[in-house]
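Thread: Newbie trying to understand structure tokens

Hi all, I'm a second-year student working on a class project, and my supervisor (Dr. K.) asked me to get a predicted structure for one chain before our next meeting. I've only ever worked with sequences, so writing a 3D structure as a token string is new to me. If someone could post the tokens and maybe explain what I'm looking at, I'd be very grateful. Here's the chain:
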Amino acid sequence: MLFYTLDEWLHWQDSLHPRKIELGLTRCRQVAQWLGLLQPHFPIITVAGTNGKGSNVALLDAILSATGLRIGRYTSPHLLRYNERICVAGRPVSDAQLCEAFDAIEGARQNISLTFFEFGTLAALLIFQQDDIDLAVLEVGLGGRLDAVNLFDPIVSLVTAIGIDHVDWLGHDRESIGFEKAGIFRPYRPAVCSDPNPPQSLINHAQQLHTPLYCLGREFFYQFASDEKSWHWQSHTKTYRNLPYPALQGEFQLQNAAGVLMALELLDHPIPDSAIYQGLENATLPGRFQVLPGKVTRIFDVAHNPMAAQMLNQLLLKYPCQGKTHAVVSILKDKDILGIFTALRDTIENWHVAPLDTPRSATVQELVEHLQTLGATCIHRYASIAMAYTNALSVAKEGDRIIVFGSFYTVAEVLQIENET
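---
Reply by user tm_fold:
Sure, no problem. This is what the structure looks like when written as tokens:
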């Protein structure tokens, strides 16, 4: 074995390929073929979209697991441990399983260079093959059409809300991005889109492939129940009434759950009503409006694009606090920083900004300039997220709240601090 610890493997992978991101399937497909992964013995549901992918995967996993199926789940990025990316039967795989999978990939790839994400994707499929799962739920990392996850043919494809993100890779408008997301569709195999206003490019691509496309507001619907404590869902062939709200916070989670129920209806495996109820109530996802109560409430959300920031703002308005709202924030420099701040400028009084420990981080000066453009005045600068969070805790008074957002990196660093205290 080339390395014997997971950290060694990950450090080596991170420096192996000349580019951190290189979309395209040719290199990874060849290695997958040598490993015998291109025709897995289990069915796959693939999830793409700008926002809500993680929530959709969590809901699918929770509901399908409640039927007794053994589910493999692949997501990215992780928050605290790399192992979170690959889960079997609800549990992250072990370091030993990952090291063995990486060693098998290294032995098969010959002189083909793989990215960090491609190594992880192949490892997930290899582990799922060996672990005798019943079904895999795979989250696309970036886009869809050229993402490594798209090597593997789904029986159902699910596209969530589509917004503007990763413009250097996917395009500057929803039509371009929609086409990339639709790349996970397969001829004559069903696809679901839970975006209430899907780009025409996505619809056109489905038509060209003869992909049966099920769209929110056209083939399936949801509405709030009159008691405001439950909701209803229906398609042309199935109706659920008085469903529990998903455990995941936010009314927009109903949009996610609606798409998930449509995808589940398209499976050959019957889903009992009890599994629907149980899965909706039990699905969890760290870092998505994750609330730690106390004299000062702390809220963690990985919102890192304008659409996600708008959803975060809706939740903050729905659950106001008695005191002031502080933000501990840092954002990657390739994001729409101004758009993110615009969504939250009227809700946050005090800004605590710091750089992330990655070359992709925006500088403190860049963050401050965007906030000043929007008229923010209470801006505090720090050398690190840890310093920003520690100081926010020290100045916040009882009844205040602290929102940590802007990136997976931002939330991960603060959650690590919380776990150590």
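A couple of things are worth pointing out once you decode it. The chain has a mean pLDDT of 94. The domain at 6-282 is CATH 3.40.1190.10 (UDP-N-acetylmuramoyl-L-alanine:D-glutamate ligase). Feel free to ask follow-ups in this thread.
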